[in-house]
Amino acid sequence: MSLRQSSFFLRFLTLGALAHVYVGARLIPDAQLPATGAATAIIALLLSCILIPMGMLARSSVNPPWGDRIAWVGLIAMGLFSSLFVLTVIRDAALLVTWLVTLLASANLPWLDLRRYSAWAVAALALAGTLVGFYNARSRARVVDVDVPVAGLPQDLDGFTIVQISDVHVGPTIKKQYVQAIVDAVNELLPDVIAITGDVVDGSVEHLAEQASPLGSLRAPYGVYLVTGNHEYYSGATPWIAEFRRMGLRVLLNEHAVIHPSGLPMVVAGVTDFGAGAFDPQHRSNPKAALAGAPADACAKILLAHQPRSAAAAAPLGYHLQLSGHTHGGQFFPWGFFVRFQQPFTAGLHRLGKMWVYTSRGTGYWGPPKRLGAPSEITRLRLRTAASGHL
């Protein structure tokens, strides 16, 4: 671990410990637990404070299968505590507002009961949300259908289908069986093109090549294309690019492919991750270079870019559609509200100038096996003919 990483992790541990102290101080006394119950709650918070960083470190510091088992426990604890912390903050804010209102209205409320019941409600909601979120995350991603109108698209290509998967995050809790279920679902859709928009893996080729191997079974008549996400660079992009190519996937590194459905030229371009240049200057993301030499008469120009914020540079270049991921749609409450501070789009289909941008909520998940309000997806996009005035 580098000095920079060590410094970050120390700050993470400190903030995590303070957050656990805050939750314990706000909930345990108000819950009016008996002595044994209070002691159990304190021990549970201490375990959570220990297990969360252990879960983050176990994958890289402990050999399988124990590394994965520790990661499972730690990441579930992270998801549970995240909800517990957020709900505690919301509870405190609600209690403060209620106190101010009653003060102004000169009203009396049974404060001891209100604080006790709200403390129990926070714990119950956090646990319920974690269980439901676990079920959602571990279920196979649903298929989401999206129609994209493209001005001037020839009638012969109306209904041309691109199936997108993104942010699978093969790693300590997502293994071969999970990936195989995604691959089977995608192949059943019989797409014309398959697009994989980054963050496929969370770990080294040595540890995860076999777990990611079902991706080599993806099939589409006009190709299976992949671009790198930020997690590829955390995991060693160069060996993973070689491994993806060995699987038979077409990796687009600021370049494009020209396909000819119905004999008509169409461009599928791809850029490296928005922040790739910080890891390798030769991989600096460049939507303009990705389009260099493409036929000017291409009936559709599709860009694969892991992060939605690549759209600002891509929109003026004549792309019709950008496919992105990265955001996970926030994955679970309340993180979707914070995505918009970094990315222009959180999820779904949007316009930027004359270009459409579709942002997938992701096909897997990252970190805690938990999804609430942001279901995972396999996206089936159909290009539709549209008059130029109705783009």
Quick summary of this structure?
45% of the residues lie in helices and 17% in strands. It is an alpha/beta fold and 391 residues long.
Structural description of this entry:
The protein is an alpha/beta fold and 391 residues long. 45% of the residues lie in helices and 17% in strands. The protein has helices spanning 3-31, 35-61, 66-105, 111-138, 176-188, 205-212, 230-235, 237-247, 287-291, 311-314, 336-339, and strands spanning 142-151, 160-165, 193-197, 224-227, 250-251, 255-259, 266-270, 301-304, 321-324, 348-352, 355-359, 377-386. The strands form two sheets. The chain has a six-stranded mixed sheet with strand order 1-12-2-3-4-5. It has a six-stranded mixed sheet with strand order 6-7-8-9-11-10. Helix 1 (3-31) crosses helix 4 (111-138) and helix 2 packs across helix 3 (66-105). It starts with a helix and ends in a 5-residue tail after the last strand.
Task: Set out the fold topology.
Layout: H1 3-31, H2 35-61, H3 66-105, H4 111-138, E1 142-151, E2 160-165, H5 176-188, E3 193-197, H6 205-212, E4 224-227, H7 230-235, H8 237-247, E5 250-251, E6 255-259, E7 266-270, H9 287-291, E8 301-304, H10 311-314, E9 321-324, H11 336-339, E10 348-352, E11 355-359, E12 377-386
Parallel strand pairs: 1-12, 2-3, 3-4, 4-5, 7-8, 8-9, 9-11
Antiparallel strand pairs: 2-12, 6-7, 10-11
Helix pairs in contact: 1-2, 1-3, 1-4, 2-3, 3-4
